[in-house]
Design a protein that fits this description.
Elements: H1 3-14, H2 20-39, H3 44-51, H4 54-64, E1 75-77, E2 103-105, H5 110-159
Antiparallel strand pairs: 1-2
Helix pairs in contact: 1-2, 1-4
Length: 160
Amino acid sequence: MDKKEFLEKLTLALAGQVTRPVIEENIRYYDDYITEKLKSGMALSQILEELGDPRLIAKSIIEANGGGNEMAGVYEDSDNGQPSFGSRGVGEEPFENQGGRFKSFHFSGFWALLLLLAIVFFVLMVIGTIIGGIFLLIRPILVPALLFFLIYSLIKGGKK
């Protein structure tokens, strides 16, 4: 196994288990580690043997970051400002404060449409309730005024 293959196996083992920034941070760390050891004269095979199986390293990283999460693709770190589609939120609640970092929801496809329809329905219900309330308030004044106007029109119309 070479350096590239080691890093690819590590990336694949982490994908879908931790957030993209965690994957990138760890890949960068192991890439730098292997490069530094190579510069110091150590053989690649010896370095990789020292590190061990990338899947075991990935398991340790996943456990250190709270383990896998059944909500894959739902959360994103707001620190980097880039969507991390397909990544996991590492067992954290949305909007949970973690030392100044917040998690936020990202909706797409069906869920975005469902959320939009729910919001539109809610807004229409609120508007209908407000308009209905206004009519309930002015009904005691409006109904007699309309009756008075109707009777007045009939009487005045009949005199011509």
